[in-house]
Amino acid sequence: MSWLRRYRIAIGAVLIVCAGVLVVLLMRNGDTSADMVADDTAKAADKAQLDPKAIERGRAVAVAADCAACHTRPGGGRAYAGGYTLQTPFGDILSSNITPDRATGIGDWTERDFFRAVRHGRSPRHMLYPAMPYPSYVRISDADMHDMWSYFRSLPAASGDTGGTRLGFPFNVRELMLGWNLLFFRNDAPARAGEVNRGQYLVDVLGHCGACHTAKNALGGDSGYLGGGTLQDWHAPALHNGMQHGLGSWSDADIVAYLKTGSNAHSIAAGPMAEAVEHSTQYMPDADLRAMAAYLKKLPGPAETKPQPVAANDPAMVRGARVYVTACSGCHAPGGTGIAGMATRLADNPAIRAPDTASLTHVLMTGSRAAATDANPTAAGMPGFAWKLSDADAAAVLTYVRNTWGNAAPAVSAGDVAKARRALKARKPM
Amino acid sequence: MAAPKTRAKVDAVIVGLGWSGSLMAEELTRAGLRVVAVERGKWRDTATDVPPSVDMDELRWDRRRGMMQPQAVETVTFRNTPTQKALPVREWNCFQFGWNVGGAGTHWAGMTWRFNPWDFEVGTRVRQRYGTRETTPGLQLQDWGITYDEIEPFYDRFEKIAGTSGTAGMVGGQKRPGGNPFEGNRTAEFPTPALKDSRWMSMFRKTTAEMGYSPFTIPAGNISTAYTNPLGVRMGPCTYCGYCEMFGCGNWSKSSPQACILPALTRRDNFEVISETEVLRVNLAADGKTATGVTMIDAKGNLWEQPADIVVISAYQIDNVRLMLLSGIGTPYDYKSGMGTIGRGYAYQTISGASLFFENERFNPFIGGGALGVQIDDWNADNFDHSGLGFIGGAGIMGFSTGGRPIGMADAVPQGTPRWGSAWKRAYRDNYQNAATIFNQGTSFAHRDVFVDLDPAYKDRHGQALLRVTFDYNENDRRMAKFTMDKAAEIGRKVGAKHIETFNSAAGANTPYDQRSTHTTGGAIIGADPATSALNRFNQSWDVHNVFVMGASSFPNNGGYNPTATVGALALHSAKAIIERYVDERKPLVAA
User: Fold this and answer.
1) Rounded mean pLDDT, B529-550
2) Which of A353, B23, B401, B530 is a plausible cystine mate for A409, CB 3.0–4.6 Å?
3) Same domain, A290 and A227
4) How close does chain B come to A403, measured CA to CA in Å?
5) If we measure between CA atoms, which residue out of A287, A259, A135 comes closest to residue A199?
6) Contact at CB, B228 and A341, closer than 8 angstroms
7) How far apart are the first and last CA of chain A?
8) Do B417 and B423 meet the contact criterion of CB atoms below 8 Å apart?
9) Beta bridge partners of B77
10) Structural domains of chain A, count
11) Are residues A17 and A41 in the same domain?
12) Same domain, A41 and A189
């Protein structure tokens, strides 16, 4: 036996072992045996006597999981009929119809199909992208899954979208998710009653807060639990208890008020969070909101040192102050105190100091609408200023509000604004 | 034209979604009724249509009436006396029809007055105090069938919804310092404190107080502080930008259906609004005693029928009367015989005052508000003895700071100033900081020869007759205007104006192109007697009992105040009667 041949055998053996290990890992990672508890005979669209109590419980689970956020197209889409475009760094993903329509929805699915899709990202049609937060939903309890199944079966069937994509190669190859799952999907067992703290279950599992509030790495995997993330040109701030960027200055009651009404003394929900409040959190029971607040308030914040504010006589600050008086003070008030429930308080506001200024430039360029809730139906709007403020003026006023009234944060550059303006396809200033 | 398509029947259809329609819809839907509101104008939204990032465009909104319904859609014809031929009004001045969801409540100035208790009982009170000594022939003085004390809780509710700013003069029977000592009793203070004084207001306040009058801050729907109303809807504090009347408010500071009601109302599943659709007529059952719904036409020209158990007409003063006449509800008023009620009791607002010019002042008129002003009521209503004066009624005399708009202020120069060129520019520059106005907003009383009816010649785009207005000031109102004008001049002299020019709209014949006031009233008035009123005290048609008619069309006489709060209070009063009585009784709520 030549050395070459021995070498080949050795390499081959290693490869076989590796392949074997990979197969084992893939099998364990893709193990959906937890979903075997679900029935695999009756189809969603089949006639059935559904338990009204289970439907009602399931509706509450679907609300807490905010299924409507993606599966109901905003602006008049049929409930849960899909067709909403999720913009990801890899391309567009369309949400699917999850009403019991046989042709385009889940009408021909069994309960087990439903469990596998929701908890393991494996629908009867194809593998799902983690834009569907199955990495969070994997721990949804069996009871909640059963109830949710009853709820979705009870919905009127609507013709909708099967969930296509506008992704380039290689991202359009769904089997790639096998590898992604291997790297980032923790195939944890479903939560059992009493096992997981209710607040954590709502935050991590149903609420899937980390989908936005946890940063993603280059491959879309989690990076830094609830430490703040940026998605769809919005920055979701940190939910830990840091004083500079997190919720350190918020009380439990502040968090509950925010989730219930869309605003509190500190802040007003905008962008995707406004949608989350409108569709989901405002309808959650107060006890659940209190549990979420209690859990979040226990998350330790990183040791942050407050930076020195940009000097008030810095040219950008002087310019920003001037812009602020003419363009902003009418609603946000001369002292940055805002209007409760309508115009965000800018003074001493962690969201204004965010390390990533995506939300600030987004709101300033395109404007935003506060969440409309039963408790605060006004939904005050901030107009976009893209047409009015130059990159330099916009950067100056953001720098000004980030470094005034108790705020201190790095300056925003005209380049940052220009980049946001391009990304948002916002107007050029007149 | 194709036959109308029929929509699903609802409990109530509301024609026109301004203040009255919105208040009514809010009440009825909260009580569980299914309500469809039909609005001729388009949806207009604070954040999208009038964002505060866009500077107010005076040319577009004010001069060109950007928010008003175009005359091509509908206008009125006008004449002074019943023997003249009426001609169409071709430019909006005193008539200002809303043309959007929110109605005129979107573009109004914001003065949020309660009428004086006397205004509701003019017939009785004048007879008691003066007999016929001070009245001129032909006046139609009659009570409203509802007293101030009865309507008071609904004023209070309206103010709480609107967030009205002011200082009360009378709460729980106790006089309050700084308020209007002549006002009717209130159950509560204003929801938000009074606005601050401008320089001109503080001068007017000081001088009138020194003259022995009782100045107070005008109740304002440009509200002074952030406020959350009973519907959970929030408002922001007024920035004193001075662009209120003719404009929408981008700061959520001006009381309006958009700012105060629609955010809560539009969340309700039992409410639907159909915009850009015009109601052509109310359909009556064969016996003519009840309405079956309305026929309407959408923007594409499709006809629709909206069946309903209750029809609420809240389409503005002019259109309310017109729709009743077009639908055959009630008997048209005949000025010769005095018979009939639909079209009877038309009134306006009687305006006089003084333009003042000072020297070396600095009024900074750009600090303004539609309702920003100080008033004295000493010469209003029956707050003074009219014996020997030969008239009844009076005027609120106000010193206001409604804004320093560049085009509007271009006329605020002394008479005789060249209309253009360097002399005009100099005068404009010198007077911008030195001009002020004392404005008398006077009562207007119904008269036998003043009325509205369908024009025999002119029609709208759908071939339906326009409404014809027959109006001129009566002798009573002319005397009142002259009397209060002299009072304004006297205040002007005392406050130190260097040059005073008095004005009196009632000195000559009335013209719809004199925009001193937009407050047209009457034509479908409430009252205790079906022979002299179109509606009973619940704004319910005497003739067709499931038709309720809201708005200033129901005022039997106009007070020396802006009409909006009274319009709102009457709508809320009517809503309560519908919910608590009519939906069960289904009959006239007052026996004829």
Assistant:
1) 98
2) A353
3) yes
4) 23
5) A287
6) yes
7) 80
8) yes
9) B88, B468
10) 4
11) no
12) yes
Q: Please choose, from the candidates B419, B479, B439, B464, the residue with its C-alpha nearest in 3D space to the C-alpha of residue B353.
A: B439
Token pair listed for B193: 């404190």
A268 and A150 housed in the same domain:
no
Cβ atoms within 10 Å of A320's Cβ, excluding its own = 29
The residue from A160, A195, A230 where one domain ends is A195
Which pTM does this prediction carry?
A: 0.94
Question: What share of chain A has pLDDT > 90, as a percent?
Answer: 75
A1 pLDDT tier (thresholds 50, 70, 90): low
Q: Domains (ranges, CATH) in chain B?
A: 5-585 (3.50.50.60)
Q: Is A200 inside any structural domain?
A: no
How much is the ipTM here?
A: 0.90
Residue given tokens 């070459």 in the structure block: A4
Contact in structure between A268 and A262 (CB atoms under 8 Å): yes
A372 contacts B234? CB cut-off 8 A: no
Q: Which residue of A has its CA nearest to B52?
A: A383
Q: What residues of chain B, 52 to 71, have a C-beta less than 8 Å from chain A?
A: 52-54
Q: Is position A201 within any domain?
A: no
Look at strands B547-549 and B303-313 and give their pairing. parallel
| End-of-domain residue from the set A240, A273, A298 | A298
Task: Name the phi and psi angles at B292, rounded to 5.
Answer: -105, -10
H-assigned helices in B99-145: 104-107, 122-130
Write the residue in A339, A342, A374 that is nearest to B267 by C-beta: A374
CA distance B111 to B373: 9
Query: What is the Cα–Cα distance from A310 to A320, expressed in whole angstroms?
Result: 12
A175's CB contacts (< 8 A; 6+ apart) are: A127
Cβ <8 Å between A374 and B232 = yes
Q: Is B55 exposed, middle or buried (0-12, 13-18, 19+ CB in 10 A)?
A: exposed
Distance set, CA B542 to CA B337, B524, B527, B536 (Å): 20, 11, 10, 6
Q: For residue A340, what is the nearest residue in chain B, using CA coordinates?
A: B226
Its sign, for the CA torsion B295, B298, B304, B308, is negative
pLDDT of residue B1: 61
Q: Does A31 touch chain B (CB under 8 A)?
A: no
Range B82-113 burial, b when 16+ CB lie within 10 A, else e: eeeebeebeebebbbbbbbbbbbbbbbbbbbb
Instruction: Give the residue from A376, A378, A389 with the most B CB atoms within 10 Å of its CB, the best one to mutate.
Output: A378
**What per-residue confidence (pLDDT) applies to A89?**
81
Q: Coil, helix or strand for A22?
A: helix
How far apart are alpha carbons A416 and A361 in whole angstroms? 8
Residue A11 burial by Cβ neighbours in a 10 Å radius (0-12, 13-18, 19+) = exposed
Active site includes B519? yes
pLDDT digits (tens, 9 = 90+) for B519-533: 999 999 999 999 999
Asked whether residue A309 is assigned to any structural domain, the reply reads: no
The beta-strand segments (E) located in A49-189 are 85-88, 91-94, 165-167
Q: Based on the fold, state whether residues A260 and A341 are members of the same structural domain.
A: no
For residue range B70-110, what is the model confidence (pLDDT) as tens digits? 999 999 999 999 999 999 999 888 888 999 999 999 999 99
Rounded distance between C-alpha atoms, residue B116 and residue B139, angstroms: 19
Candidate from A339, A377, A381 with C-beta closest to B47: A381
* Residue B53 with chain A: CB contacts under 8 Å: 327, 367, 383-385, 388
Phi, psi for residue A371 in degrees, rounded to 5: -65, 140
Band of residue B475 on the pLDDT scale cut at 50, 70, 90: very high
Please name the residue of chain A whose CA is at the shortest distance from the CA of residue B258.
A378
Q: Tell me the shortest Cα–Cα distance from B188 to chain A, in angstroms.
A: 24
Look at residue A176 and tell me if it is in a domain. yes
Contact status, residue A191 vs residue A136, Cβ threshold 8 Å = no
A119-158 pLDDT, tens digit per residue, is 999 999 999 999 999 999 999 999 999 999 999 999 999 9
